[in-house]
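--- STAGE predict ---
source: upstream dedup step, 1 unique chain passed
mode: sequence only
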Amino acid sequence: MNHLQEHPQSGYLVVSQNVQDLKHPAELFQTILENFYENHRSVADRLIQGGWRLLRDSRNWLGENVESVGAGAFKVALRNSDPDWQKNWKQHADETLRQLRAINKPVLLIVDELPDLVLNMRGKNDDALREFLAWFRKNRQTPPPARDSIRWLIGGSINLASTLDDLGEVDLINDIATETLPILSEAEVKEFVKRMLSSRGVEISETVPRRVSDRLGRPIPFFMQLATQEIFRSWKKKPRKVSSKDVDVVFDEMVTSQAAQAKLQHYYTRIRLYYRDPRRSAAYLILSQLSQATTEGVSRRSFEQLFQRHLVDQGASLDTASQRDQFNQLMRDLENDFYVIECGMDHFDFSSGVMKAWWKKYYG
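--- STAGE serialize ---
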């Protein structure tokens, strides 16, 4: 997504935003407008001259108060232009899209981590959430995409369909085409390791790239980069031909490193934030057991039996069909959210070797 923003294709004007911490559609469109104004000032000025009152009033307020505001100044100006933004968000959103369609240039609106915005609203403002989702669907389809100059690119590290399934509103996104990012192959991981280390003058044995790949499991780019950085640091302290044994030492130490801790703790915490009981507590139980399993993983049947026992322990009263639905959704969510991966015939393991080692150490 950053690449598309920095290198627009086919003449697109790109407005990109991460909405992970937002809690209302008003904040979404304030962020879109802020990024549009800050990154495409000449186009924004032209629209202001054409009569876009919201941007004009916000720019004027900013000019009068520039010394009293700091970061996020234009968003502050937007809020001051209309004290009832949350009430009037649809009016401002409609006008924003109308103005963007008037610039006679294709526009790409990137909304990264949209599922987080949905989850931040779920249970706190469900009526407003449903209103936003219905509005969003209507404006993705009207005018028809083939005739619309605006394109939406939605990203998320959490599965949007599962999120909306809990609300019974999954039909509001069935027009969105899903594109899953391809997983890097073992050959690509090996090539990455070779190039990253050789470019820094690190001599490695032939087994090192394969060992890095094995320890990574599913190759999450952050951990790939962190692993090669830590191997380089280890080599720099004591220059030598790096071996597979050295890789194991680096990975064992990396699990407790500060850089890895922040990323891995996020995976642990987001279950508490985004999963609902009984799936929430069951997810922690399943992942705790899985962290102690061999590379052969654990069978789906074993997990289902564990889930059923957990429901009894929790005093949950569900009929057999509901139990099966809850379990199937939990396993689907854990797989879609990159916790687990099918490693054999109906067997599961952690998708990331780094995450598995970390989970075993702290929560196993």
